[in-house]
Amino acid sequence: MLLHLSDLHFGTEKSECVHAIQQFCWEQQPEMVVVSGDLTQRARLRQFFACRQFLDSLKTPYLVVPGNHDIPLYHVWDRFLTPFMSYQAFFSAPERELESEHFYVIGVNSVRRRYHTRGHISLTQIQQIQQKLSEAPANKLKIIVTHQPFYTPPGDPHGVKDCPVLGKMALELWSQQQLFALLHGHLHQAVVYDLNQIYQLQATHPVLDIQAGTATSWRLHNNIPNGFNVIHPNHQIEHYIYQEQQQRFVWERNWNLG
Fold first, then answer.
1. Coil, helix or strand for 85?
2. Whole-model pTM?
């Protein structure tokens, strides 16, 4: 299984959720952990350090990508000259790959210093990711991770302003390489969409947009509880939420779109 966390926002983390995720990993032993951005609340060194300690404590291979909260907001000079300096001090390059027995995951940095929340995918990234997908093992689920989602429904208060620029172009090419899913956070909600149906990508299979809420922060949107997703090799997707009485994450529902 793959454990999909997002929007940890260290600096606003709830210790009970942190401990519950540690317990879940120690009991379930996922193949890998993927975190789709916003590791910190304000990109401070002590927040990155706490997040790194937490992820290392899971004793599981992990892949992270930066979110818009992981570059300086108030230090404008640092934001424009060295936006990822603190992130890279703890997590190395903002783009890398991770492979396990059943999954091949590509981290894509969709965060730009010029935007506060909206993401951006460059032409170079589109070409590089397409090449990586074409060379990925055919027997493994191919997954891309970015912070911003590639779809928000009509009427959503966030609208397209939180979807990456050139995202649709990227999807049209990536979906031709047997892409299974894209993992995101950013909106602090747990939903799954079939982008093939929404955008008529002409892929021969569903291309899923899997969004996760905040796993550990008290910064909840619309009172949506802390939660995370679990993805299984058989395409089953599970959503877990934190149960205060039990002090653990418990299964809430399944999605079966793959």
1. helix
2. 0.95
CA 211 – CA 257 distance, rounded (Å)? 14
**What residue ranges in 32-167 does DSSP mark as E strands?**
32-36, 62-65, 97-99, 103-107, 141-145
- Three-state SS for 256? coil
- Structural domains counted in the chain: 1
Q: H or E stretch including 117?
A: none
**Domain span at residue 38?**
2-255
Adjacent-strand bridge partners of 237: 231, 255
Cβ(91)–Cβ(52) below 8 Å: yes
Task: Give the bridge partners for 141, in sequence order.
Answer: 103
pLDDT profile of the chain (258 residues), mean per 10: 98 98 97 98 96 98 97 65 86 96 98 83 97 96 97 72 88 95 95 94 92 95 93 96 96 82
CATH number where 91 lies: 3.60.21.10
